[in-house]
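Researcher: Let's run the pair from yesterday's discussion. Sequence first, then tokens, for each.
Model: Starting with the first of the pair.
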Amino acid sequence: MTERFAFDIHATDGMARTGTIRMLRGDIRTPAFMPVGTAGTVKAMMPESVRSTGADILLGNTYHLMLRPTAERVHRLGGLHKFMNWPRPILTDSGGFQVMSLTELRKMTEEGVTFQSHLDGQRILLTPERSMEIQRLLGSDIVMAFDECTPFPATHDQAKESMELSMRWAKRSREGFNSGADHAARSALFGIVQGSVYDDLRFRSIDALQEIGFDGYAVGGLAVGEGQEMMFNVLDFTMPRMPKETPRYLMGVGKPDDIVGAVERGIDMFDCVMPSRSGRTGQAFTWRGALNMKNARHKDDDRPIDAACHCPACTQYSRAYVHHLIRSGEILGAMLLTWHNLQFYQDLMAGLRGAISEGRLTTYARTFRETYAMGDIDPL
């Protein structure tokens, strides 16, 4: 490790850890939740508002940014941090998720993946080397290796073929990352463990990635339809084999109870579109479960969405007003609920960090689950 990237573990509680990832653009407290800024923005939020919730790092999307406005344009304009006015760390995914999600718009070979742009139909080749170049042009702080996110369900043979391709791409990603010496001196590269739900494939993937060598290791290919029980089962056999001295990132997760269970199993980093996407569609996450703010029962309710929350939606407006905004299709409704949801997620992460530090994670997690499962049952 160098000053560009270091991971300090401050405390453990069972498999869970809390610590700090130190990077040139700032520290990242773990366990950490990364709001998703797919196209260079967390939708419906100003960057300073995202920071006020407690976020230390954002996620950007290689595939979408390479199409529009293009990585080359972002680079000419000073890099993604300046472009979107976020001076703190940014993690960029590699485009690997779109290899799975855009199956009708892509063709995959050993070289890479040819996409047909969903914007204008243009055909674009994305290889491990090009993915590294795009993330370098964006100025990413944490770069993800290019992989295939294995779909679910997959047979053992299908998952094996997919995992082995991802490991070959991981080696090319490392070589491509190292070739950009100036960027490599300022950033970190994470490898991605694949293997679907099969323990032998996950173990082989971990061993292959460690042989290549990465600054951190992500668990990919989960939260793709397998369900929480199976996801936790995969983490149960995967996490004990993961390197202990580096950050562990569970990609694309998730619901609040997913996050709590994954932290208990040793995950340090998360990202998910759920809090911001749900905010735009009228759903609010609270300590008593999720609320559908479109429901008529909120129309005369002068209480805050969540009395324990200190976001503007909860301290300055009533449920009745937010309900009105959502039902009326007003932009402010999406803004307030997105802010609230991001605040809830960051408060949850802070609570988990504190519980691990004080050796009371089991109690914290049990109380969270019990309260979250109760639902919003208080009478008006």
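Model: Moving on to the second of the pair.
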Amino acid sequence: MSTSGAGATSGAAGGDGRTRLEDLLRQAEAEAEARERQASEERAVRTVEAPTAAAPTDRDISPAVAPDAEDENAVAREQRAFAARLGGFRRTAVIVPTLDGDLMTAVYGGIRWVYAFSDRQALARFAVAAGWEPPPADGLEFLTVYGARLLDVVAPATGEPTGVALDVADAETGGCVLFPPVRGIVPDEAAVDGANGEALATAPGEATA
């Protein structure tokens, strides 16, 4: 990992800033749910609008149901797309801002989220959304670290459920991705659905902005 940034940490948000950070996470989650809901509605509309054929005879009935198969294919495509995004994130060096020597995080939904950004432009958009004026993208101290290290090393080291929020200010454009602490994303011992999930879920932790 390498450290970059000029001078002391600037733009540190207090109570209001912390609320803004959590609002960004809330917005990102809402946008993800809205996209999933829209995809489900579109699948439902396609099913309803499908042309109706003549009543089938016993000979025409197939054990496979087309609408269900279409839904399964759509889910499979979404899973493949997320897997590809996860793989790309793991192989990519991202920017992780720090405040007072600690990684910038916030707790939302019982999970501590580490903020990561694809590039300086994404970090600058975050600074604007968080209400820092002027945007301190060049003044913030930050680390450059591979996504795999955040998920495989940092998440287990916190001792509480920890995920990564990538480009959290870009939720409206679909650029934000949340990598929650579940198996397949973080090591089993750090996953809330893993062997230590119950202990992790009850671990104490306070938001850091």
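Researcher: Give me one sentence on the second I can quote.
Model: Residues 2-33+88-201 form one domain.
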